[in-house]
Sequence to fold (355 residues):
Amino acid sequence: MPKKYRASVIGATGMAGQQFMEALIGHPWFEIISLHGHASIGKKFGESIRGFTSYKYPEEIKEMTVTDIKDLDLNSIDIVFSAIPSGYAREIEGEIATSKPVISTAAAYRYEEDVPIFLPIVNGEHYRILDIQKKKRGWKGFIVPGPNCTAIGLAISLYPILKKYGIKSVHMVSMQAITGAGYPGVASYDIIANVIPHIEREERKVMREIKKIFGTIIEDKIHDLEFLIDCKCNRVPSINGHMESVFIETVKEFEDIEEIKQTLRDFEGQTAGLDLPNAPEHPIKVFDDPYRPQPRIDLDNKGDEKTGMRTYVGGIEKTNFINGLKFTVLSHNTELGAGRGGVLSAEYLIAKKYI
Ligand SMILES: NC(=O)c1ccc[n+]([C@@H]2O[C@H](COP(=O)([O-])OP(=O)(O)OC[C@H]3O[C@@H](n4cnc5c(N)ncnc54)[C@H](OP(=O)(O)O)[C@@H]3O)[C@@H](O)[C@H]2O)c1
Fold:
């Protein structure tokens, strides 16, 4: 890689933004030029990090001052990573995209027909819609949002099955970690030793996004893949990782569970062969042990630097339905599901020479 891309991070102090930071620090292709926020404007990054992190930030990063987004000099940077609440993202990201690429974790632009819900492991080819986005809006830059964190593990685990057997229906029940709600997120009194059986707007987002993630670009739009999908989302007292119980009906018959396991194990994804620093070689880890995956064992207990970028699938069984299958899936909501996943998107776009 001949040059380092100069990056700004908006919302660096938050749950998703910290994962942008961790992925960008020491990255061979990026250097962090500026940090932007809201409540922490004027403070040092090291004093403003929200929540608890065991990550050891280098001194020079801790010493960086968080500034107002109005102070961002777009001529001095090549790319912006944004992890801010959707309500603010609409205006802020739109303005930056007039001249620079924006990789976002927010939902503000996800549902527009010229904007991909980008998950390069699954739908890397959707970057082709960006030419249309730029032309239609008269932008020199563009916006690439990642999916909702609950949709990500589901999309990655379904995709190899979809490709091989087709999917007739999907039902999903989630158990989502508290970091998914940002900081301070859910009140401690509400979540300790408890389960909250509703997450505002989450179910609608997941159902809508999965269909678009699997969609096809036809002319100037991304057209959804149509199949039956429904879900129920719960907040549970785990720290990291959204776990989901998934029930599906495939269109084509599968031989047996071993064949499904092998299909998931063999999956390499659209990031394969591009030599991207944050792409896991095998995006899906399959367990035979019915007690796995578990958030504490498989995510909090860091195995290697790609731990938070894999999708973990276990408990694969046939159901009583025709071509019925069930399994448990787990993925990291702020790593693959937000900041580090966003950095992988940027790596993919660089590899495709789009940035
Ligand atoms: N948490 C997850 O698992 C997850 C996963 C996928 C996507 N997301 C999405 O990522 C975004 C951030 O979520 P989060 O969970 O990281 O939230 P968070 O922990 O509450 O952090 C919010 C961040 O946004 C900054 N911010 C707030 N208002 C701003 C403004 N007007 N201008 C500039 N910066 C502003 C905050 O900076 P200060 O600290 O300086 O106020 C903070 O760094 C949301 O859109 C969320 O939906 C989150």
